[in-house]
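The protein record reproduced below.
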Amino acid sequence: MSERLLVLVRHGQSEWNLKNLFTGWRDPDLTPQGVEEAKRAGKRLKEEGYQFDLAFTSDLSRAQKTLDLALAELGQTGLPVVKNLALNERDYGDLSGLNKDDARAKWGEEQVHVWRRSYDVPPPGGESLKDTVARALPYYVTEILPKVLQGNRVLVAAHGNSLRALIMVLEKHTPESIMKRELATGAPVVYRLKADSTVESVVDLAG
């Protein structure tokens, strides 16, 4: 029987998450807490009896390391892994590397809030969430979804905003509601899909 299993997990805490910096396409490592979050994600999935046939991740090391640590806990270190920058975090452009408080001091609280929380207003030199959806969603539709619908059990380790692009379709969010959809670091979200690609069930393994 086909499982049509899709599990999404946001990378564990990164060094720049800890420092309250805009990260985007920059490539900081996981913190010790982030390493533990990644391991915990693998342990939770193992406890629930999940195994996988294939994994996807971004071109950034914090997502790749999260995936490696989770797979080690699952005893699946040899799993085929596809890496693609289509799953990279939203590019924050000129904000990348800046402390969020410093950015507010430079551009103002309201402007930074618009860049962070509006759907279609990009920061200078960067991407809006709409731009990230336009990048990540076609990759999901052409590369990831067909594998799931063929009955493969697929694990995706990526980033808050690139995963929101997938969740927007899976959970049928509007541009407004997707901005409020929070994803905890290292917390797997488990979807089982129907044959028509819509969601049959969703389980959040946070905590």
